[in-house]
Amino acid sequence: MESPSQFLTDTALWNAFKTGDAAAFEQIYRMHSRHLLSYGKRLCPDYDQVQDAVQDVFVEIWKRRATLCDLSTIRFYLFRVLRNRLVKQMNNHADPLLRPQLLDDETDLFSIPSVDFFLAEQETTERVQQQLRYCIEGLPHRQREALILAFYHQLSNPEIAQIMSINTQSVTNHISRALLTLRGLMTGILGLLLLLLRFDAGRLTGE
Amino acid sequence: MDYHYFTWNQLAADSAFREWVLRPTNDSTQFWTEFLTRYPQQTETVRQARRVVRQLAMATEALSPSVTEDEEEVVWQQLRQRIGNDGQPGGRIVPLWTPLRPRWQQILAVASVVVMAGIGWWLPGRITTPPRSANQTTVADAKTGLINQINRSNKPETITLADGSTVVLQPGSQLRYPRQFADNQRIVLLSGDGFFTVVRKSAQPFIVYAGPTVTRVLGTSFRVRAFANNPTVSVDVRTGRVSVSAHIGTNWPDQLRQESRAGVMLTPNQRAVFETGTNRLRKDLVAVPVPLPTPAPVAEETFDERPVTDVLARLEAMYGLEIRYDKVVLADCTITTTLGAGNLFSRLTLICQAIGANYTVDAGQIIIHSTGCTP
Prior knowledge:
The complex is a heterodimer of chains A (about 210) and B (about 375).
Chain A lengths: L9 H9 L3 H22 L3 H17 L7 H22 L33 H12 L3 H11 L5 H8 L3 H39 L1
Helix pairs in contact in A: 1-2, 2-3, 2-4, 3-4, 4-7, 5-8, 6-8, 7-8
Chain B lengths: L7 H5 L2 H8 L3 H13 L4 H21 L5 H18 L6 H4 L5 H21 L1 H4 L8 E5 L5 E6 L5 E4 L5 E4 L4 E5 L7 E13 L7 E5 L2 E5 L2 E7 L5 E8 L2 E5 L5 H7 L5 E3 L3 E6 L4 E6 L15 E7 H12 L3 E2 L2 H4 L3 E6 L4 H12 L2 E5 L2 E5 L6
Helix pairs in contact in B: 2-4, 5-7, 7-9
């Protein structure tokens, strides 16, 4: 998909947008829509609602363009409005706030003896990534949401705080606690993996 | 910030640190280099935190639902329309909207339809929510351009589509269809029970999305039953050939890509059953096979001491079904009978009794088991 980047500087883009330039609006949409749709899908399992809500937030910035401050805050503003909207809608429908967790019965992971290393040196191996994703899904949902906003959407802690309607210190705490939990889980899982590998190897040589 | 006493997870939880790792600038690189020069004891912590940030960035990206260009485009086109309609867009806006790109017209048509399919299946409560002013409700969805017709009466309704095809919609069922079909395909969405009589157009397959199934035909008649609260979806074929496949995933672009796996081809009086529990499509016969439509009313046909294979061949032709048997074994079996409109299964039972055989139905086929007759 070609991105119509007609406005080369942020200032030019912003000024054009403020005067109601549709091409500028489209460029802003293209800059943010994927991240917003992705975040929305995570928050809400009903894609139709997500689509509507993403449209709503863009309609809103279009209508309020005259009173918006600047380009750098738009992204965070869009996230915040989107989240408010989806959370409100989901509350109306008495739906759970976030997607159903993938794992509820995995608490056993905690009881596996920890092996004393963290996330392994081969940091990009698919297996480690796979385990990491698995463990992230098992986090409490606020921690997981903060983590995703911080590391995938790359928002700052004050921005995340406003998006999630909590204070900045809580965001920092959520993230650093989530990381500690993850380390615990990961070392547990890696320990389990090692055990399984050893078991497998033993079985093979035994045959 | 007193970074010199931060632990690895506190560093990774710090916005400025993350920004440096993920989007370094000259300034941030200079800051952290100076920091490490002053506090070399933090080198290992910083290294670990950097690794964690990069790993988390990868993992959270992989965890985040992907968004396709099509999805982005669909929202954009809808947004564009809304802003165009909503309001007072300001003097410059109208001429600046570029015309809808042709490529997207098709994608949009498909996209809107399939999005609805997903919802029809997963959120039945939502779509069948009132307006309940009339028994039968027709609502054109402003955003998708799809007509949404719900039969709230207690008798079947017939809908005629733009191509002349008709759908008999049973009470409590819902059909979504475009006012005009795309050039290359005709897509509709069904929730509930619908009997389709499709006008043949070889260049424009007719596609019915119903729950987890996709039914494609060129021209034929068939019935689809897909009630959201029922774990099975069935497709019964009356005439013609019909291909049925399952799709998986709740994200509609995935549905489009994955639908074509493992389908079944149905001929008249066959049925495809999809069971949500097993996620499998199986072939069966319809509950009550009916003779194929003929131009003239079916006249009774009398067979007098004729080979049973003649009678079976006649039945095959009447019902458009395949009956499998061993010609050699049945060669000496003869029968006297009359064929007219009537129940296929009771007829088969009578025939089998007469020749000391039995029959089974397997994967949409009738199989005659016999040890032969003595002449």
